[in-house]
């Protein structure tokens, strides 16, 4: 394929995805939640299990990919390993409704949509998606925010 065409396509994609990301994080989203979701997204897209582990609380619970942190991480690692060379997930996180926003807890309905990307270009192929109830709390000496709960949202 012509390198110029690929370069133009990548440029268009970067402009589009940059604008899409700006709309995925509402201005009223608290700073601690924004940082947490950005870290989770970055680790997810890099297939970085250690990075994902750092964003998940040791007291994690839910019904998404297992009921505990080790179950969740094991499932993520298994799926990342199954992706063929050159394929990676692209994650979009949309916030629908903030339920709790305090210094002690953040909770909201979020929609996490993952598509597969190949050579930096997002394909229309859905890899994972769903509306979730997400809860996060600060932990430890430095009050580092982590996801404590992910539950499938039922209308």
Short recap of the structure:
The chain has 155 residues and is an alpha+beta fold. It has helices at 3-24, 31-45, 49-55, 69-82, and strands at residues 56-62, 87-101, 106-118, 121-139, 144-152. Strand 3 and strand 4 (121-139) form a beta hairpin.
Task: Characterise the protein shown here.
The protein is an alpha+beta fold. The protein is globular and about 40 Å long. Helix 2 packs antiparallel against helix 3. It has one domain (3-152): Nuclear Transport Factor 2, Chain: A, CATH 3.10.450.50. Mean pLDDT is 82; it is low at 19-25. It has helices at residues 3-24, 31-45, 49-55, 69-82; strands spanning 56-62, 87-101, 106-118, 121-139, 144-152. It starts with a helix and ends with a strand. Helices cover 37% and strands 41% of the residues. The protein is built from four helices and five strands. It has a five-stranded mixed β-sheet.
């Amino acid at each position: 394929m012509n390198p110029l065409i690929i370069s133009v396509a990548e440029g268009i994609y970067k402009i589009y995805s940059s604008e899409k990301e700006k709309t995925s994080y509402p201005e009223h989203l608290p700073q601690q939640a924004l940082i947490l979701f950005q870290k989770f997204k970055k680790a997810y897209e890099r297939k970085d299990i250690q990075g994902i582990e750092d964003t998940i609380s040791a007291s994690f619970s839910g019904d998404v990919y297992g009921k505990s942190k080790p179950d969740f991480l094991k499932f993520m690692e298994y799926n990342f390993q199954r992706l063929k060379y050159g394929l990676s997930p692209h994650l979009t996180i949309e916030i629908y409704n903030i339920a709790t926003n305090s210094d002690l807890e953040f909770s909201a309905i979020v929609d996490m949509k993952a598509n597969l990307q190949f050579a930096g270009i997002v394909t229309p192929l859905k890899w994972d998606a769903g509306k979730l109830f997400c809860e996060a709390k600060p932990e430890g000496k430095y009050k580092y925010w982590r996801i404590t709960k992910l539950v499938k949202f039922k209308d």
